[in-house]
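Q: I have 289 residues here and want to know how they pack in 3D. Can you give me a structure?
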Amino acid sequence: MSYRFSEFGLEAIDQKPLVSFITVTYKMPHFVRHLLRGLADAMPVFPFEFFLVDNGSEDETVNWVRERFPWVQVIASSRNLGLSAANNLALKQAQGEYIMHLNPDLTIFPGELEKWIAWMQTHPEIGISGPRLLNPDGTDQDSCYRFPRLWIPIYRRTIFGRTPWGKRAVHHYLMKDMDREKEQDVDWVLGAAMCMRHELVKKIGGFDERFFLYFEDTDLCRQAWKNGSRVSYTPAAKFSHYHRRESGTKHVWEVFKNPVTRIHIRSAVKYFLKYRGEDNPRRVNLLIK
C-alpha cells in the first residue's frame, strides 16, 4: 500500500509506490516534525511510502510520529545502529522505483519533489542525483564533491588547510568552481538529499555498514560509478538544509573531545583502505564508454 495527495487530501491507494522516502533520525524530534509537516504541506501527487528509522533516540519521536502521521512506517531500533545499517533496514521493505533519502533537517518546498522525480524520469542514465541545497539564508550550500584524496581530511582539520596549496585542494574537493545553475555529473552527492534508482541500490547491495556515520554517501556514489551508472547534480529541484557539521573542529586536540569527529576519522580510514590503489571510477567509467 502507498499514499498520495489529491484534491481530497491524503489517501491510501492499492498501488506500488513510485518513491520510497527514507529518513533516519537520532535524537532530532524537532527536525523530524518540521520535515514531516513540510512534506504533508508539499502534498506530493505521486504514489509514495515513507520510512522513518529511529536509531534508539529514547525520546518522544516514535510515539509522536505514529500518532500524528499514521502514513509513516516507523522502524524503531532499540539502539543506535549507525546511518548505513539504519538505511538498510528500510531498504529491505522499500517498494518504490526510486529511493529518496531525506535528512530530518531539510525544508521541503511545494512542487520540488515532483520536479526532482520528473528530472530523474527524463534522465534514465542517472543512477543517483542530488538537488540544489540552500542554507537557511538562501545561499548555496556545498552538496556535491570530488572524491577525496588522503590529504583532504588533514587539510580540513589542521593548520595546513590555511596554506595556499591547502586552500586550493579543499576548494577543488568542495567544487567551489562549479556553476550551480547547471546540471552536471559529479563524483558524489551529499546524502542529506539523495535520489537513487532502486534497482541500482539493490545491485550495489545497499549501504556499506562498515560506515557507521560519514562516508556512506561517498561510498555509495563510488559504487554507482563502478557499476556503470552516473551520479549527477541537478538544480531542477531545491531544498533548504540546516546543515550542522557536528564533526567540525578548529584545533587538532579537539578530536579527543568530540566523539563525532572520531567517528568521522574512523570512517575516513575505512574509506581510504577500501579503495586503496583504485583509480577514480568516474574516469574509468567514461574511458570505457
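Q: Anything worth noting?
A: The longest strand covers residues 230-241. DSSP finds ten helices and 13 strands in the chain.
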